[in-house]
Design goal:
about 0% strand, mainly alpha, single chain
């Protein structure tokens, strides 16, 4: 059984990656105050943290390949 309690009273979908897709205004809040990104990341479920880390790693590998072909 999953526990979806939030201390801030916001909807549990606000603490997921899909919540960002459904509420793009939250991304603007991250741009205005980057410290909120870490708070958001800490509240994510483990599987979504893994997705984000995998995407970041894939992006870095792609960027390394791009730089390798450029130079």
């Amino acid at each position: 059984m999953e526990n979806n309690n939030n201390n801030n009273g916001s909807n549990s979908s606000d603490n997921t990656v899909m919540g960002l897709v459904q509420n793009p205004a939250q991304i603007k809040e991250f741009m205005d105050d980057p410290t909120k990104v870490l708070d958001f990341y800490k509240k994510l479920p483990v599987n979504e943290k893994q997705y984000i880390l995998f995407a970041a790693a894939a992006g870095l590998i792609g960027y390394a390949i791009y730089l390798g072909k450029k130079g």
